[in-house]
Amino acid sequence: MNSYKKLGKNVLLLTVGNFASKLLSFLLVPLYTAILTTSEYGIADLITTTANLLMPLVTLSIFEAVLRFSLDAEEDRSQIFTIGLYITVIGIIVISCALLFARSVDSLKPYVLYFALYYASLAFYNLILQFIKGIEKVAIYSVAGVMNTFIFISCNIVFIVILRIGVRGYLLSFILGHTISALYAFLSSKSYNYIVSFLRIRFRIFLNMLRYSFPLIPNSISWWISNSSDKYILTYFCGVAINGTYSVGYKIPSILTITISIFISAWQISSVEKFGSEESVKFFSDVYDKYECLLYLGGSVLIGFTKILATFLFQKEFLAAWVFTPILICASIYNSLSAFYGTIYTSSKKTKMLFYSTLIGAGANILLNFILIPRFSAIGASLATMISYMIVWIIRFFNSRKIMKFHINICRNTLIHGVLLAETVMICLDINPFYSVSIISVLLIIALCKNSIIDTVMILINNHHNS
Hints:
The protein is 81% helix and 0% strand.
């Protein structure tokens, strides 16, 4: 129960720092869809998407190594943070030099400076927050997350609603939020005490971190392809306005994705402890059983009530996004299952298979995008994303068992996937009289997962009483 107590505490702290912020950002969707055009939102989304593509490539995915190595108490954390900092600074210099050439492209010229500042602020934010999470200063991590959100939302109101500067205001809100909250986290955690001279860097630690992070570079790029290549291909075949609508369609699945990412963030800390022992195998098995049941239940609720949520959140022509949103929710479920198996590879420091599995999924995603988008537009992009995530999940399911083999209820899970896919098809076809399909699907999943749900509730009650 101590393991659950620590996991629960970290989930709570990370929820304060992330969920409230992400939820408030989610509630800004009606603002964006009311003020920005589909083309403007499509441009803003492509800029942030491109920056996230370049991040792991230019920084050598060093943020992941900073987190994993700083979780090991026996490692020299000054070396870890300094190595991460130097690589981050070099990456920002590389991006800045590359953008000098981009200024010659007329369509990119108005946003070059904003892109550079967005990238730099995000890079420092990621580095510092991953490090303070690794040294388990989770409370500071949470406060920084709340601060980031408050600044982001305040700036959105000023720049987009009052000053009406559109895409520039959207990007500037990110830049100020990342910069100020990163500075707070850096000073509050006294991370400056971990910086050492470049000449004192130990080559052995540097190589070990690169051995860990290098397979994560193509893995991150492959994930980006699975997550975002559809937006570029969709823009090519159907135009930037359709991409704007498609990008908004991701906002409802993000409710599920945000919740899961917070849990995975806390789980990364707990999964390292005593990894490989009999105790850790049992812990993995128990946590995964509860994780997937709550994931299925949450996904089913979102799929069933997509149209209602879309009516409240999406304005004007953006409302058309509800049709393919259930497919994206289903894709998020498979993505979340893959993420849990990914922690087995990162905890064991065997990251190569992360790359191979994601690469196969990315290849499938690109192929399916070119096949499905010309014929089915945004629905085709959604199907390509869902199928590619499913492929990654299946590969990791089988391969990860070579590292850690924990109990999985295959029969129950097969039935639940059948329920979810049937619900998705019927909701997309708008066959949901009196929301009967939604209610029946949710009740079936509750019946199949009742023991796991009851166990989860009891753990929460016991942790509350013992706190």
